[in-house]
Amino acid sequence: MIVKTMEKIVIDTNFLMAISDLKIDVFEGIRNACNFKYQLYVLEGTLDELESFIKGSLLSKRQAASFAKKVLDTKAVKVLKIKSDKLVDNQLLALDGYIVATVDRSLRQGLKKKGVKVLTIRQKKHVVIE
């Protein structure tokens, strides 16, 4: 008997901001790109980053971050609490056993070098797994 394990996908801040910036439903995109069972996560630092955008950024970033937080509240996304003084990108690079959803080019490259699967957005409308 083969038992399939549930994959763990952690979503980066910029991937969440794409919901508003690119007018894309990233959660439906993930569902379409992944032909396996998964659980979604965000880092506590990602929530902190969204909050900092809401408090003091350009209007477009404030709106995108605010919308991303509202959407997160409606989805079954678990929060990973990692005690670290590292930047969120460095925390993502240090994770083991997770697929990372990001549109950050340098983070994607670093993750690929480590052999980590990455979900990203292509042509500003399609979520794909690399």
Overview of this structure, please?
It is a single chain. By secondary structure, this protein is α/β, with parallel strands linked by helices. The chain has a single domain, classed as 5'-nuclease (Rossmann fold), CATH 3.40.50.1010. It is 48% helix and 21% strand. The protein is built from 6 helices and 6 strands; from the N terminus they run βααβααβαβαββ. The protein has a 6-stranded mixed beta sheet with strand order 3-2-1-4-5-6. Strand 5 and strand 6 form a beta hairpin. The longest helix is centred in the middle third of the chain and has 16 residues. It is globular.
CATH topology name: Rossmann fold
Distance, first to last CA: 29 Å
Which sheet architecture does the biggest sheet show? 6 strands, mixed
Numbering strands along the chain, what is their spatial order in the largest sheet?
3-2-1-4-5-6
Radius of gyration: 14 Å
Could you tell me the number of beta strands?
Answer: 6
Poorly predicted segments: none
Order of helices and strands: EHHEHHEHEHEE
CATH class: Alpha Beta
Q: Would you tell me the structural class of the helices and strands?
A: alpha/beta
* Count of helix runs: 6
Q: Helicity range of the residues?
A: 40-55%
Q: Which features would summarize this protein structure in a list?
A:
Rossmann fold, globular, alpha/beta, six-stranded mixed beta sheet, 130 residues, 6 strands, single chain
Short summary:
The protein is an alpha/beta fold and 130 residues long. It has helices at residues 13-21, 26-33, 44-56, 59-74, 88-94, 105-113; strands at 7-11, 38-43, 77-80, 99-101, 118-122, 126-129.
